[in-house]
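ugh ok fine here u go
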Amino acid sequence: MDLRNIAIIAHVDHGKTTLVDELLKQSGAFRENQSVAERAMDSNDLERERGITILAKATSVEWGGHRVNIVDTPGHADFGGEVERILSMVDGVVLLVDAAEGPMPQTKFVTAKALALGLRPIVVLNKVDKPDAEPERALNEVFDLFANLGASDEQLDFPHLYASGRSGWADRELDGPRKDLHALFDLVLEHVPAPKQVARRNEPFSMLATTLGADPFLGRILTGRIESGTVKPGDAVKALARDGSLVEQFRVSKILAFRGLSQQSIDEAEAGDIVSIAGMAKATVADTICAPAVTEAIPAQPIDPPTITVTFGINDSPLAGKDGKKVQSRVIRDRLMKEAESNVAIRVTDTPGGEAFEVAGRGELQMGVLIENMRREGFELSISRPQVLFREEDGQRLEPIEEVTIDVDDEYSGVVIEKITGARKGELLEMRPAGVGKTRIIAHVPSRGLIGYHGEFLTDTRGTGVLNRVFHEWAPYKGPIPGRRAGVLISMENGTSVAYALFNLEDRGKLFIGAQEPVYQGMIIGEHSRDNDLEVNPLKGKKLTNIRASGTDEAVRLTTPVRMSLEEAIAYVDDDELVEVTPNAIRLRKRHLDPHERKRQARAAG
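structure:
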């Protein structure tokens, strides 16, 4: 069967997974009476809850005697480690752009990599039926983006379609019949070339591993596109590292091909097809799986480096072990090493004491997803404030700079620009009207300046602003950036919080806890209204007397406490604070410092 391999690129929430759903339905991948969940490609719980694609996944559809392998790529830069490798498996890309928002940072991030690989894009302007859609403006912005990214003349001469993924139609003209996605299928077959690897079917077998998975019955599974030859179950093969050194030799136990949403076992796989192979024990992503006669590894796409690091430690608070079952450092280390094995954008290193682990990654969202998965698996952890990774080049200290794209209502643009260009050391690149009373701001800001800013940004814009960020470059260190200005309220007692005590503390600042919640000495229970930390007693009950007076015995009414999400908590804590994460709770606390460390910090503070 004639093959086509394509990847779908889009920014978060531009409708990529919904469009893939419709492609599957209209190609007949589902039975008439088959019950299929909405956003079928978002297979894990976190993807469904957050509405984002975290893991790259492949599917295939049959259309007019052709098989089209479709790879759904993550829409957030924090998970870009997946994207860079996936693009090496395909021969064309479908770039999905929201007709109202136009191309966004993640679109630019992935498209730059696709254009550098020489892939010819098809542009689909999605959501053109929305009232604020401006498809012609969005199309012009896409062309300008391609030109700025150094696209060739052939790549700039891209075909485009107008579509509504949710309604299940795509047309070459804006006022087309709006019936189905036939125009998109036909354009893919016409515009995307068949894999050139097909001509190398008679050569020895070789395949570049691009994603790693695990199966309880089959063990490790590596997915990639076969570059040459054919492979069958039982064949003896070997794995080569990037430098050509031997990793291991093994026999292929099973070959799985993508058919609709499921993977089916096949008897033979040929050059050009995207398949999964089982049977290896050590081989991993970017390794070359090949026949014994092959001596050279296939060049692997370099991976952008991690930009932040977070310390994962054991939970050593007084409430440790009450919620989770996995609390030992040995178990935490095993889980992190397993994650680093399958996720090339993450690096794990041991700290000298062996009780904590430095985890380096792309951003706060990637760390938040890893921690959320671990707490759902029953782990208890203490998490430090994210720290930015620096580089030394020619004796100069470099730090990561991110390109930030912000859409805000016109009235809030002043305060946003003041915040990012002032203390956060950002550099304003562009500010222009985005239509419908909104302003688009583009700036280059140090990664350090963005840690913890998102919550402040939502407060400044009354929850209406949209902030997107993507790694831009390494640049010279821009000097100190002040952290959180407000102090915190710290519990001085162990026990259960009392409504009366919390009522009297409300004048001191915002509270993070409600009544009848467990607290302990050193736990952060609120934000102080001033810039210093304050120790308070949330257990202090009302002194009872035998005298009753009108109005003094009314029920206490507490203000609703501030409940932070995991990412907000990680971004909120200061250098001397930790986030305590358990399956049922997220708490903040001060670090347990030994007396020598306290003295050292006091001397450093002057």
